[in-house]
Each structure stands twice: as C-alpha cells, then as structure tokens.
Specification:
By secondary structure, this protein is an all-alpha fold. The protein is built from 9 helices and no strands. It folds into 3 domains: 3-56, no CATH class; 59-98, no CATH class; 118-264, Up-down Bundle (Four Helix Bundle (Hemerythrin (Met), subunit A)).
Length: 265
C-alpha cells in the first residue's frame, strides 16, 4: 500500500470514529507526516466527494437511527415486563423459549445488503485509479529531469562535431567535460521501475559515447584514420540506441495515460 493510500485509510477510519479533521491533521503531523502530504490527501477530490466519513454523529440520519434504537430498547423492556407478569401470574407463555419445539419461532430474515460489495468495488476502482495516476506522475517527474539532460547531450554532440571538423584537441577536451556532466547527473536520477530498461540503455549509450570521444581525440592526436572511423561508427550506434530508447519511453508514457483513462471509466 502506497503512503497516500495509508493516509486515506487512516483518515477514513478516524472520521468513522468521529474525529474532527483538525484533530486528524494534528495527529498526522505529530506522527511525522509532512504538511504537504497531509494537505494533498485532504485536498483529493475522491476523498471529499466519495468518502463522506466526516462526523456522521451530527447528521439527521444518525439521529434518526439513534432514536429508533431507543424506541426498540423501550419496547424490549416493556415486552419483558409484560411477559414476566403473564408467565408468573397468569400462566400465559409469552417467552420465546416457551414456544414448542415442533413449531419453532419464525423470525423474518433481514434483507441482504449489497452495499459492502458495491463499496468494495468502488474502493477497488479508486485504488486502481490512484495507482495509475501515481505511476503516470512518477514518469512525468522523471521526464522533467531527463529532458534538460537530453538537451545538454544534443549540445555536446554539436560541440564535438565542430571539434572533429576543426581537428581541435582543446575543443574535444571541453566537450568531454560536458559529456561527463550529463553522465554523472544521469546516474543519480530517480526513476520508476517501469523505466529501468530505458534508463540503463541510455546510460550505456552515454558511456559508449565517452569511449567514442576518446577515440576521436586519439585519432586526431596520432593522425590515425582507423580510430577515427571506429569513433564515428560508435557514435552512430550511440545515436541509434538513444533514438530507440526515446521511442520506448514514448510508448511507456502513452500506456501510463491510457491506464489512467481505463481506471476512470
């Protein structure tokens, strides 16, 4: 169960117990939850609209049920008193346990309620929706970190191509620093498990490009055309791998949005 689900379930139970929202919020903050997490859960539409757990003790329905229970209790007491009088003084059997075994007391069966089943189905649908939204948001957060790095990689590629055309060793050294920065930042990115393959594939491609950069610089320094060809071929494979990873990433993003739509139906 995700942290958000834990908060929702706690708020649900606390409201059923009659705890006010301010007290629930204070308890959660004392337990170590951050104000942002608490406010986010209290602000969720489905929590406010679909789970009406807030202090039902003040609702007219609750008061009516309480009144009915009181009337039933009074009627029970009166019945017991009357039955005791007739059983002891008039020899008139009114106690339920005095009904003959051959004709057992028949009580009407209470109609089976379907509300638990429907509530359970509704909860399941909301859980699926919450999980789909969370997965989509995690991917979106990852993309917000990745896009600047991909732009930095494009800038590096342009700079390294100029260095190759000019046969400039200093420009190659400068471009390598840009590539090292992209790789180091890529290694510390936080990503959801569904993106593990894509993330690792791009990281491998970046490391291959680092090798290509070194080969190209060495070919310029030693005037070795064979190493230059090797470096160019390696860079071509790097570009192909990154384009393939981008295509996989687009499919995963589309599937995440589709999962949210299905959960909302």
């Amino acid at each position: 169960m995700s942290p958000t689900q834990q908060l929702v379930e706690y708020i649900k139970q606390a409201r059923i117990a009659g705890m006010a929202d301010d007290k629930i919020r204070e308890t959660l903050l004392q337990a170590g939850w951050t104000p942002m997490q608490v406010d986010e859960v209290f602000g969720q539409k489905f929590l406010n609209n679909n789970f009406q757990f807030s202090n039902n003790s003040q609702s007219p329905v609750y008061k009516l049920r309480f009144l009915i229970l009181i009337l039933i209790g009074l009627a029970t007491v009166a019945y017991i008193g009357i039955a005791y009088y007739f059983a002891n003084y008039q020899n008139f059997p009114l106690w339920p346990f005095e009904v003959p075994v051959s004709s057992p007391l028949l009580l009407p069966k209470a109609a089976e309620s379907t509300s638990p089943r429907s509530t359970s189905a509704r909860d399941l649908q909301l859980n699926r929706l919450e999980e789909a939204i969370q997965a989509r948001d995690e991917i979106a957060a990852y993309l917000s970190q990745v896009n600047p790095l991909l732009k930095a990689f494009d800038a590096y590629m342009a700079k390294s191509q100029i260095a190759l055309q000019n046969r400039s060793l200093s420009d190659f050294t400068a471009s390598r620093k840009d590539l090292e920065l992209v790789i180091n930042r890529w290694k510390v990115l936080v990503f959801p498990s569904v993106l593990n393959n894509v993330h690792q594939k791009v990281l491998n491609a970046l490391n291959d490009e680092m090798q290509s950069n070194k080969l190209a610089e060495e070919s310029i320094r030693n005037r070795d055309s064979a190493k230059l060809i090797e470096a160019i071929d390696l860079t071509d494979r790097v570009v192909a791998a990154i384009e393939e990873s981008n295509e996989e990433l687009r499919k995963i993003v589309a599937e995440a949005h589709e999962a949210v739509k299905r959960a909302q139906e």
